[in-house]
């Protein structure tokens, strides 16, 4: 049996966004995105859970140093997005609708570059307590 273990680090950020498809009319945008289409933006308290899967190092017993993982997320994700207007303040969402789905994909792609390829990575992002997404899906 393999020793594969999943470790998780939970972080938090606040950000504003507006969901909007510029190719559509105002009416269609409102009918699809509802309150999240509010022209003057609105905020969410995002909970971000970073999951790393692999085998623990035999010397340390650690899979990955969680302090290092936390610093990695702070430096590369939270500094970019915390207390920002995702549409206006970030290059990532200049032309990409900042849905929870797209935010999770963007965060995954940022962190995937920084975490050893021998580990699997998954992002879970809570936009509200009851609405959350995971990427990759499996
Ligand atoms: Ni929203």
Main sheet overview: 5 strands, mixed
Report Rg.
17 Å
Question: Order of helices and strands, N to C?
Answer: EHEHEHHEE
Spatial shape: elongated
Low-confidence stretches: none
Strand content: 25-35%
List keywords for this structure.
138 residues; alpha+beta; Tetrahydropterin Synthase, Chain A; 30% helix; elongated
Description:
By secondary structure, the chain is of the alpha+beta class. It has one domain: Tetrahydropterin Synthase, Chain A (2-Layer Sandwich). It is 30% helix and 28% strand. The chain has four helices and five strands, in the order βαβαβααββ. The chain has a five-stranded mixed beta sheet. It starts with a strand and ends with a strand. The mean pLDDT is 96. It binds nickel (II) ion (NI). Nickel (II) ion (NI) binds at residues 17, 36, 42, 44.
Helix and strand arrangement:
Layout: E1 5-17, H1 26-33, E2 42-54, H2 66-81, E3 84-85, H3 86-89, H4 100-112, E4 120-126, E5 132-135
Parallel strand pairs: 1-3
Antiparallel strand pairs: 1-2, 2-4, 4-5
The structure holds nickel (II) ion.
Nickel (II) ion (NI) is lined by residues 17, 36, 42, 44.
Briefly characterize the structure.
With 138 residues, this protein is an alpha+beta fold.
